[in-house]
Amino acid sequence: MTAEAEAAGLAALSVCESLVIAMVEKGHLTIEEARGVLEDAAAAHLRQEMPEQANRHQEMAVRFIERLILQVDAVGHAHRG
């Protein structure tokens, strides 16, 4: 992956993280809805049949999504408490 593509991926990840968290904070999505969307995205990556190198990228994507699920949970608990 080129440096430009990597930077674009990081920027997209940051934007998505911010949007999902903001949507939960504003009440546009419940924690459960946000989790469902993110879990569906992770499952889509796990279903991909690809060469070994590409599979490692899919697994990394799943880990990023799982990290975002934890962040969404934390935001939800902060707003409930």
Any overview of this molecule?
Helix 1 (about 5-25) packs parallel to helix 3 and helix 2 (about 30-45) packs antiparallel against helix 3. This protein has about 80 residues and is an all-alpha fold. Helix content is about 85%, strand content about 0%. The chain has helices at about 5-25, 30-45, 50-80. The N and C termini lie far apart (about 40 Å). It is built from 3 helices and no strands.
Descriptive tags:
81 residues, mainly alpha
In short:
Helices cover 84% and strands 0% of the residues. It has helices at residues 3-25, 31-46, 52-80.
Mean pLDDT, as a whole number? 86
Using only C-alpha atoms, the radius of gyration works out to 14 Å
Helix count equals 3
Beta strand count = 0
Secondary-structure blueprint of this entry?
Blueprint: H1 3-25, H2 31-46, H3 52-80
